Fold each of these.
Amino acid sequence: MSTAEAPSHLHENPYEIARQQLRRVGETFGIDPNLIGVLELCKKTVEVSIPTRMDDGSVNVYTGYRVTHNIARGPSKGGIRYHPAVTRDEVKALSIWMTWKCSLMGLPFGGAKGGVVVDPKLLSRRELERMTRRFTSEIINEIGPEKDIPAPDVGTDASVMAWIFDTFSMNKGHSVLGVVTGKPLAIGGSLGRLEATARGALYCIEEVLREETRSIDGLRVAVQGAGNVGGHLARMLVEEGATVIAISDSQGGIHNSAGLDIPSALAYKAERGSFEGFRDAETITNEELILLECDVLAPCALEQVITAENAPHVQARIVCEGANGPVTPTADEILEDRGIVVLPDVLANAGGVVVSYFEWVQGLQEYFWKEEQVNARLNEIVTRAFRETWETRLERRTSMRMAAYGIAVQRVAEATITRGLYP
Ligand code: GLU
């Protein structure tokens, strides 16, 4: 039995978006069109079928992908997504964005991404484990510590990484710590990795506020998504003195213009599975959340939630892309024209892959760092990338996205030219 097609959140083809963005970067920064022609395409796309024994004895067959976009600067790096609406082109786009993200952060990695067309919420833990182990076996020749290193993304977590690590290691006959990141602490994960994506986003917000000579105290934020990024970001913002006025999950959200009690709201959701019925808050839809009056809007869930339709009505001054690709290119132009600062995904959510890099290094060296060291080095890397992006934006009179992509693509271009075209 194979699974039925799920309704998609994608209005536009993300791969086309990623390619279009790259062509614009090429024109703006004067990069050789031959090179852009190479970088527009993914180096390798692997599609596999994943027959999985369900608990009732039946067999479901899932489709999985692992795409390597580019390895000019090092082994490819990027998460694995479990979502019912995953497509090959979505995974390709996400792998391209990983190349730019790693490059902007100055990490010695290229970009990759994986995905399985599955709703993980509908599988039992044992089914999820069997599916993950079979997927790992199907892509076992693609991944490895010097080759391609997966990590968590939407719908996957540390347990999934543990199964990938174990399956790969059993096949090699010894533990291979560097094969995935985002592992549980008990088997070589890094302190600070779980919160790293949110922490990086927080550092970016703090840097913009520094530019505006404004403090985070009383900053009004709406957070879309309560997963690993949105949930931790909301909690950290409140700890730093901001007011989180709204938060949501895939089913909908809650709003209180005076501020939400975020720790209680997250505990409530953890217990009951949704925010529905949480005290002192009105229920809102995910669409309504995007349009709330606030200082910072942080879309931390899926792609394409800010579109040509709703971008003219966004009331935030700053949009912080906790998710990958939440703003479509047309929406991006509208926000830019309206003077809204967009902190692009490759900058705003790069904290995760930065600490993945630390985890990979710690694993290879078998020497583990203290959490303060992890966070201090994360801060150094994200803040430096922010400053470079901000300065390029001012010099070129362009958007933060164009500046970030420009820096990133130029670095990959330089590596490609320096290595030369084989043969
Ligand atoms: N999936 C995350 C991202 O989109 C993390 C990738 C990684 O750590 O390799 O950046």
Amino acid sequence: MARTPLIAGNWKMHLSPAEGAALVTALVPAAAATTAEVLVCPTFIGLAAAANAAAGSRIQVGAQNCYWEPQGAFTGEISAALLKAAGLSHVLLGHSERRQYFGETDQTVNQRLVAALEVGLVPVLCIGETLAEREAGRLQEVLRQQVTGALAGLDAARLATLVVAYEPVWAIGTGVVATTAQAQEAHAFVRSLLVDQLGAAAAAAVRILYGGSVKPDNAAELMAQADIDGALVGGASLKADSFAAIIAAV
Ligand code: 13P
């Protein structure tokens, strides 16, 4: 099954609105020159400026999180419905930094995912094990729990747009990239979990991105693997030259 690659930049808590807009503008030629989908995920405060800069280009803009209630007395939160109304296309969910620092659980990821699907945002579900979990031989158990927890109650029809990002926590921001064999093995396992949940045809259509120290010099080899359908890039997505080089590596 041919899957359109997706190259996504997670800007985390970096870049002012003006800096983000300038970065988007600088990335327009790279996005025009690839058949891959290109996505940037600025901070909430940078979304509008990035979306304006991306208008008319092949660059899509998504958020890094959303709340599940559509509106209400939830000070400091942003709903999936509000993101959709702002013209955004995607939302990252369950990033390991959300799990680690902000109490995100598989259950709250599931609630956010349901809300995102409800309004037509493409959910990018982030999963991945810590080094301690990997070393304890718990890789498959952790991934199974994260996937089944996040997708609980959802069937193939509702998950038609689902994107998964496998991001081993030990590879995030560390400069330590998973080997291509480690990454492909984990991706193939995640796809087998998706087969269990969605059936073979729907699972074959899901893009599974790799994230964790993706750089221009390792992107091509990672993305050449059978079950790696793109990248979720942190640090290297903050500079036009490195992110453009990763886009060009597809
Ligand atoms: P780095 O590319 O900086 O390792 O970050 C990966 C990541 O967390 C993307 O969501």
